[in-house]
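Chain particulars:
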Amino acid sequence: MKTGYLGPKATFTDLAVREMFPEYPSVAYTTIPDCIEAVVNEEIDIAVVPLENALEGSVNITLDYLIHEVDLPIRGELSAPIRQHLMVHPDQLNNWKELKKIYSHTHAIAQCHKFLHQELNGVRAEGFTSTAGAAQYVAEHPDQPIGAIANELAAKEYGLAIAKYDIHDFAYNHTRFIFLSKQPFNLPIKPDYVGYKTTLMVTLPADHSGALHQVLSAFAWRKLNLIKIESRPTKTGLGNYFFIVDLDTALDDVLIPGAIAEIEALNCHVKVLGSYPYYQLKK
């Protein structure tokens, strides 16, 4: 088995791969779409991509690719703590408050808004393809007064010095990473195993008032617990949405199929995006 992740080395996605698939060779990709398409093209067996951050919400490019571009089921999920640090080239360590530009992934920049506003107000923050890519860029330009927001592994990987630790706005900062694969594979029952989830996509009919209430009722009276519901545009016109629904149970033979049949009777479209084990790292 070969895995792929959003690279380069030492991204948070790389950390997730190292945690869940330490025995498999891995390939770094420049973008999330590149990583997902590598599974479709059979360059790799498993793509590990970020799906949601506790502070910034869903990673829209991941959701959009799953819904509109490819047909790959979710095979597993890992929720991992995220620690964002400000890092610079060692030559710039004593002058980090005089930086002219900060690089990182846009989600990481948004997670550190308060710190950047208070400590580096006026310093331009620019989006990069990944946190580790930003760290690599800073390492390659030692003479420039620039910094990166990334994790501690990135600082070690690219020889950077950490100027400030844990600069994210809120202490609880976790990201959900999902595993996509054409073929099912076994995931271990590790100490950080939590349970099973089932994720559905539900598209409502345009001419059926109260459809969302009826959809939710189909789950409620069966005592199926919804742990997340999120709307996303169908990209067919303003006001047209589909819903991503997470249930905290595995796909069974009775309850979830019964709910799907009831929802489809309302002229809704339902697609199962995956039924999979999920894990949560404590630290």
User: Anything to note?
Assistant: The chain has a mean pLDDT of 92. The longest helix spans residues 60-69. Residues 264 and 270 are 7 Å apart (CA to CA). The longest strand covers residues 269-280.
